[in-house]
Amino acid sequence: MKVIGLQLMLPAAILALVFSLAEGASGRDRNRGKVVRAHSASKIEYCMDCHGSGGQGYFGYLVMPRLAGQTPEYLENQLRAFVEHTRDRGLFINMARVHGLSPELRASLASQFNSFNPRPVGGGTRGAAERGRKIFEEGIPEANVPACAACHGPEGQGEGPNARLGGQLFPYTVNTLKNWSRERTGTSASIMAPIARSLSQSDILAVAAYMSNLR
Amino acid sequence: MKLIRWKVAILAIVCSALPSLAGDVGVPIRNCTWCHGTSAQGYANAPRLAGQRFRYLQNQLARFFAHVRDNPLSQQYMWSAAEALDPLTAHDLAVHFSLLPPLAANDGIKELAVVGASLYIDGSPENDIVSCAVCHGPNGEGIGEIPRLAGLSFAYLRRRLAEWNEGFDLAAAPPMPHIASRLGPYEIDALASYLSFVQSTPNDNDIAP
User: Fold this and answer.
1) ipTM, 2 decimals?
2) B175 contacts in A (CB within 8 Å)?
């Protein structure tokens, strides 16, 4: 009787131990998810203090870009790039510090901003927008500039790591294209370097104006 | 004859006084400088107007007029001060004061200024406090409608920040009420101290219409 009891007890004990560990692991994951969600709720307000209450962007002393509708992959890449200093324009503010977030928070915030869709802030010069549309849809063959739409989507909605351009703030886009190689040194950014270099100042102004009003 | 000469004399004296009532700048600044100081650098509770962004001044006058900015001293003094102001005069006053050179109040707590400087530039991301500098400029100079904070008095800055947490002026341009809600008394004292010592360059005022 004693021997049979022991024979049963040992596997039972082992099974009980295994189940309780499994329970504990998923319980920890559930709690971790709650912690990330709680941080994410207060963190997104921190982001929105600068980037606008709907993520539409804001014209402060610095121009804070639109995050609303941005592809999650692009957002997460940028957050990582700030921390790794592969995106750095030498501004007076420590971009790595103010954008320093844990990976789970990055993913959570990126997906939240992706779901927002406020109207574009606008402000691009309207006269140049028609020429900008041509560049956006057809590129500039004689300058080896491909159509933006080819990688960024026909409505500039973005695709994976290729940023959404629709509704982006005009001066931000202009500065980004002008400063591309100076500011972005990561391998994923290198594809844009020759394109940005081949765009003239007036090309940049035109295409940025067009995209600033794209919904 | 004597009576007529007297009347003429009195009329002459009264007429000669009228221009100075408008101030020799053609704008009725006397109504403002009573409280804000003869050179508009601020006095007691009334903040410095000199060198403030003209669009910001214009906006605040409109908000006093509409009873939207409801801080206690705003209600007590500025609501009646702005009552008789038409938009054109408000604009003229705002532009006039924006062109005066701003002097730093230098009345903060010196020991807190270094902490305040770091908070001002980078904020405190761990505490969800954003950088002030990205909107208000690296030297607190402001831009467009965003006010110049540099050199404003410690007491005024501290009161303005604290009053958002007390529920006043919640209709202020976002995101200030939320940003203020992240600040505790120590952060407020540090920021207000640092800013009170920052001397601005007067030449970066914008006066585009």
Assistant:
1) 0.85
2) 48-50, 53
